[in-house]
Task: inverse folding
């Protein structure tokens, strides 16, 4: 998404892989590497109906969906490094001060964090509960969100650098967005066969 240089934007968008079919849950897995010597500004994962590539950078901007942002730039008050969750472009959860888990403190000397690609797992259940894992760390477990399904969801990631900068690489991006339909029998069973 970005190289270790200032003034960069990078993003990608996957348009409605479910081709108009409603989803009531999703799982996303990818590998994320954030590196460089200054750590700024971060990366976001975004999913929303009608999401456009111009809608998001590192902080995310899904006006009608879900954002998980990986904020690596300390703006003051030790709010970063942090992983935030947004719903309809409003922060609903903030987990800050993740030193040693997420690189950060751009422009202020950097902080120790993992090197190399880290596994990221984002899971949304039909009841709107969200799980977020970064590497071996559980960041959010069953975080209640207003999510109740999407139709026409687009998926994307974005990153940005400014005066301070970092590399932000994504690999092995995998989406599973689906809804379970009603149970269907494909073969009639004899009445004498018990169903357990």
Result:
């Amino acid at each position: 998404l970005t190289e270790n240089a200032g003034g960069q934007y990078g993003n990608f968008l996957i348009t409605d892989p479910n081709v108009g079919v409603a989803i009531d849950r999703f799982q996303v897995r990818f590998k994320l590497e954030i590196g460089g010597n200054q750590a700024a500004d971060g990366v976001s994962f975004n999913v929303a109906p009608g999401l456009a590539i111009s809608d998001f950078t590192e902080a995310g901007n899904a006006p009608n969906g879900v954002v998980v942002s990986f904020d690596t730039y300390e703006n003051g008050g030790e709010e970063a490094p942090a992983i935030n969750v947004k719903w309809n472009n409003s922060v609903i959860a903030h987990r800050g001060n993740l030193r040693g888990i997420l690189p950060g403190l751009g422009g202020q000397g950097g902080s120790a964090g993992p090197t190399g690609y880290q596994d990221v797992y984002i899971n949304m259940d039909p009841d709107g509960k969200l799980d977020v894992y970064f590497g071996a760390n559980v960041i959010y477990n069953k975080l209640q969100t207003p999510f109740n399904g999407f139709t026409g969801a687009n998926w994307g990631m974005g990153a940005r650098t400014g005066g301070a900068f970092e590399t932000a690489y994504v690999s092995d991006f995998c989406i599973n967005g689906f809804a379970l339909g009603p149970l269907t029998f494909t073969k009639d069973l004899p009445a004498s066969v018990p169903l357990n």
Observations:
- Residues 16 and 154 are 5 Å apart (CA to CA).
